[in-house]
Amino acid sequence: MTVFRDLSQHILDIYENGVKAGATLIAVEIEEDLLQDLLTITLRDNGAGMDAQMLQRIADPWVTTRTTRKVGLGIPFLKQTAEMCGGNFAMHSQPGQGTTLAATFQHSHIDRPPLGDLTATITCLIVGYPQVDLYYRHRLLNLTAQSAEEFVFDTREMRAILEDAAPLSDPDVLGFIRNTLEAGIPRAKHLIIY
Amino acid sequence: MKNLAELRKIKERALQRRQLSGEEARARVTVAMGTCGIAAGARNTMKAILAEIEQRQIKDVVVTQTGCIGLCEYEPLVKIQVGAEEPIWYGKIDAARAATLIAKRLIDGQPVTEWEVQTTHTS
To answer: pTM to 2 decimals?
Structure first.
């Protein structure tokens, strides 16, 4: 049992940890390898990082740095989801070195939640945290494909052009983000065997 | 990244508009997007707000998000601050309510009291 319907809700949730850690750049990488039947979601941030003691306790739902609620749920939820889908969960961090988090799943696992509305998640993250740059990379290796499909969206490239002319929630900018993500995010074509 | 030429055009239009109006943002909308908010459907709330902004071409409202504000039972929560007025939090704002909230509060300029939530948090 998880509280989220899809993995892109986990991404939306976990990303906030990097924001709270003062990151200026967060990389979200999705790797779908249908040949190896593996789905990997990686989040890397350049925030404050944490020491080994905190890192060890982080998957415990009773640990949180927040003051508004007494339990931190995001990381335990993602870890639980990965582990029940034949995958695993790992975090690496050092004070001053940022944090890297990787969750893997058996791509075809019956309990694996779908990736879901990635366009909505990435749009929320870009618009919702305008102080943080987002690097999004999504690679898909189909069973039949000779080479991987790859899609990259980097807000640093966007910002270099826009500068301060318009906020990211400007309607035209929103349209640009939505269209680019909708057209670019690769979608796995599953083999259905009856 | 593709389509960057389109982004350059958007920038040009935005700069021209700003020269004409000289306006700063007239309102700020914040969606609470903590674990509790997301579980309650805050992503659809945000999606609905951004769809209204895009469809109605609202160019003077800034939308952002924040984490858990400690009122998990009222999620999804949305904060609206018009000008220098006190910000107001609205509770249980699903996608349909979000569209109504934007139309009433930001287009018609009417107060929306029925979904207001009292909070001491300012985040």
So the answer is: 0.90
Nearest to residue A117, comparing CAs of B91, B51, B18?
B51
**Which CB contacts under 8 angstroms, 24+ apart, belong to A29-32?**
A29/A136, A29/A137, A29/A138, A29/A139, A30/A115, A30/A118, A30/A137, A30/A138, A30/A139, A31/A139, A32/A107, A32/A138, A32/A139, A32/A140, A32/A141, A32/A186, A32/A188
Kindly report the CATH number that applies to the domain delimited by A7-184: 3.30.565.10
Domain B23-117: give its CATH superfamily.
Answer: Glutaredoxin (3.40.30.10)
Note whether B75 and B40 are within 8 A (CB). Answer: yes
Asked if B31 is an interface residue toward chain A (Cβ–Cβ < 8 A), one would say yes
Tell me what pLDDT residue A1 has: 45
Q: What is the ipTM of this complex?
A: 0.88
Contact A68 B25 (CB under 8 A): no
Residues of chain A with pLDDT under 50: 1
Determine contact: B65 vs chain A, CB below 8 A.
Answer: yes
Share of chain A above pLDDT 70, in %: 89
- Say how many CB pairs under 8 Å bridge A and B: 124
